[in-house]
């Protein structure tokens, strides 16, 4: 029979034919169907018989009780409340007849599966950098659910670092930036820009300081291995390893291991290639630093230039954006032949020609309107 829904895009109500005519029936949610099968059967039986008014009232009571239990279930279920586990989302920037509103930074942060991404060593640095940029300037633009998700992911990152002792310096920088931002927002600006009770944010700030103390006291376990060590490698292989690093602090840290590595880490050609990788030649001319012998001090040049210009970012894996269908996704996510191995449900004839990698800063810029 024809019917009108609450909204013209909605499929409308479900109607059940009884002896007294058509009656509206609203099925229970998928989460409650298994646990409330008995209640579901009772409701069906009452609606289908419908011989007297008492039974009709009973059906309405069952229906309202089911709605209340469904609300309580969703309220207690944290995952269904705000966190999703998706590998791609559609980025829409304006309202249409088919879709109201637009995709926000908080919505994208909630729906994309960053919790699983931090478990992948190729994506770990990418997620940490994204969280750091959000901490510096975009924390107040997140919704309450997104802020809760932000600190949940951050907690998982800290636990991971404490367990495997990998990349503690990145997390220390992230926590320092986040702590500075929260101090300014809580003391300087006030709770008007923060979602939630101010006491919750004070507790979060204390948690951040506790994490910082734990990372400060982190002790690296010395592994005992009777086999081949880094010091046993020939000089040309050690030099090749140092030339693979894209961060100057990693080179300095490795140079503190042995005197041989320290000597290799001070090589002028090593720092020259590092400067050429991150910065342009015009930038060299503006910030020339000479040594006592009159040569260019490339090591000091590197740290001077990074204060004025951004370094080239390098990640093992990043999010990708499809220009054809405006979908943001993790590229290596596949659903067999349905997704044509492109990582998302693309309708283009050759999806790979429409893809572009998305840096953490570009991710944030996508949602600026």
Automatic annotation (TrEMBL):
Coiled coil (UniProt feature): none
- Alphabetized InterPro entries for the sequence: F-box-like_dom_sf (IPR036047), FBX25/32 (IPR040394)
Top-level taxonomic group: Eukaryota
**Metabolic or biological pathway:** Protein modification; protein ubiquitination
* Cellular compartments annotated: Nucleus
Alphabetically list the UniProt keywords.
Nucleus, Ubl conjugation pathway
Q: Which SUPFAM superfamilies match?
A: F-box domain
Q: Where is the signal peptide?
A: none
Stored Gene3D superfamilies: 1.20.1280.50
Q: Does the keyword Nucleus apply?
A: yes
Q: Give a Gene Ontology cellular component term annotated to this protein.
A: SCF ubiquitin ligase complex
GO BP terms: namely: protein ubiquitination
Tell me the function of this protein.
Substrate-recognition component of the SCF (SKP1-CUL1-F-box protein)-type E3 ubiquitin ligase complex. May play a role in accumulation of expanded polyglutamine (polyQ) protein huntingtin (HTT).
Protein name (record): F-box only protein 25
Q: What is the lineage of its organism?
A: Eukaryota, Metazoa, Chordata, Craniata, Vertebrata
